[in-house]
Amino acid sequence: MVQKITVDFEPIGRRVEATPGQTILAVAQGAGFTLGAGGVYSPCGGKGLCGRCRVRVKGEGLSPLTEAERRVFTPQQIAEGFRLACQAALYAPVKVEIPPESMVGIQKLQVEGIEVEVMPEPPVARYTLTTEQTTIENPRPVWQQVAQRLASDYNLSQLQVDMELARQEPPLAQAKGGTVTVKGREIVNCFFHRPVPPPVGLAVDLGTTKVAGFLVHLETGATLASEGIMNPQIAYGEDVMSRLAYALEDEGQYQRIHQVIIDGLNRLAKDLATRAGLETKDIEEAVIVGNTAMHHLLLRLPIAQLARAPYVAAVTTPVEIKARDLGLSFSPGAYVYLMPVIAGFVGGDHVAMILGSRLDRTDKIVLGLDIGTNTEIVLKYNGRMLSCSCASGPAFEGAHILHGMRAVQGAIQAVRLKDGGTEVELETIADAAPLGICGSGILDAVAELYRTGVIDVHGRLNRQHPRVRVPEGGPAEFLLVPASESGTGEDIVITQKDIGEILLAKAAIATGTELLLKAAGLGVEDIQEVVVAGAFGTHLKVASAVAIGMFPPLPLELFRQVGNAAGTGARAALVSLAERRRAEEIAKQVGYLELMVQPSFQDTFVSSLSLPERSSL
């Protein structure tokens, strides 16, 4: 029997078994990654002629470079692990990153959140003024004239000019005037020799798995374009601890994982600007929010203390830094504002979520959950806020699930069982043939397996059930989709291990909720509203989350799904200095509960692994 090898495909999150000697393209196509299904694009039919099936490989188990690959790639790209999927044969387990340009398909990324009313108070302002040509009779350079005009016409004195802007702009005044952009006491942009675009800024929710970007009109608050991409750092680890470990191995790796997100943000900004009929050099301000690890990796801060106890941040205060100092290609003097972080695992994105959902402004007792690879929970009660972080893991992104995948076309996103679990109804993204199952689908499936009695309170599969089977040498599994109905030509199943992964994730969230309530001296019955945020939180079925005990057993009408509230908070802070001040107050007010040091943590977690009694569903 030929021994199989495993291949992890990112960013779609699929693990596939391959036969030694198969090309990466053949493995991808065999797994159903075809055109329109998040697959690898190879218009020449895999002959190595077009160079379009580029992938980046982490691992040593590949065939030597072919002549076709040497023609396509530079020595630098070869050193970085780039290969042509149609040329590279597999002989050992590897991780394959499919770059955006090589991938086709629909990735269901949550970008939008709730809309909130914000009175614009932009951090930058535009001023129109006149200048006179610099001559012997009028030997005043352009910036001297600008400073004098701003002082006399707008009562703005003691201004400085951004040095990069001064380097780019000719010192001799030639135009008869123009428009300048001022931030505080600094001139950060000017328009003397080109049309004046609208004042725009970029808001970014920098997630561990997904990155949401918004191009926003700074004076009106209108979103001109929005887009979500996968965080390219995924190639170096699915979770923050893996990425921290990678960056800590050596300085070159830290630089690499930093640069890959900078490149991703520049691509995102360019795409958004293009869609709005603008250029990236028109972006005059940016706000970026992310968890503490993403924040530190972006800023190149010390991270060793984040990777081990006591897990503390290097900087918790708000940060304002020139975009160019990060490597971001915006307007010459543009700044990036990063919200303050709260603790080692509660970052600026949590502050932004509270700000965007207006959770801090309610008099109710509210539980807020921002669900992702790392889930942050906040309890608002009696004028106070208390937060914690729980490692829910990447299972809800489809990782560590046998047939798990991210929310791309063909992913099963909803499941309903009938007739005691013998009949299965599915909903897939784009109504495509099922290729695997994403987070909302696996959550639904576990809830349905429990509701119909296919699993017991401990998540164990009933081996007597007609759709449950026990392969030789493997765990028990539930047949979700037979090979004849799947898009891969293979059965899609839910294994006993898959169920265990979901129970671990739900137990982490349930434990965080219970310990927060205990610290506040409250019970579940005291909760008056539950705010559910985040990409996964948007698409999950609340009833399924309650059914398996991930959410507290409360009436469904008390739950409010708010989408990407962190992105909403980032946009609010982008256009309003008052919102930034509010965010900074939130960060000061929120207390942090370290779950691992709570005496009852272990017992609470173990008890949360069980499913609730069916009578309470």
UniProtKB/TrEMBL annotation:
This protein's name: Uncharacterized 2Fe-2 and 4Fe-4S clusters-containing protein, contains DUF4445 domain
Highest rank taxon of the organism: Bacteria
Organism, scientific name: Thermanaeromonas toyohensis ToBE
Residue ranges constituting the 2Fe-2S ferredoxin-type domain according to the UniProt record: 3-102
InterPro entries: 2Fe-2S_ferredoxin-like_sf (IPR036010), 2Fe-2S_ferredoxin-type (IPR001041), Beta-grasp_dom_sf (IPR012675), Corrinoid_activation_enz (IPR052911), Raco-like_middle (IPR041414), Raco-like_middle_sf (IPR042259), RACo_C (IPR027980)
Classification via Pfam families: Fer2 (PF00111), RACo_C_ter (PF14574), Raco_middle (PF17651)
GO molecular function: iron-sulfur cluster binding
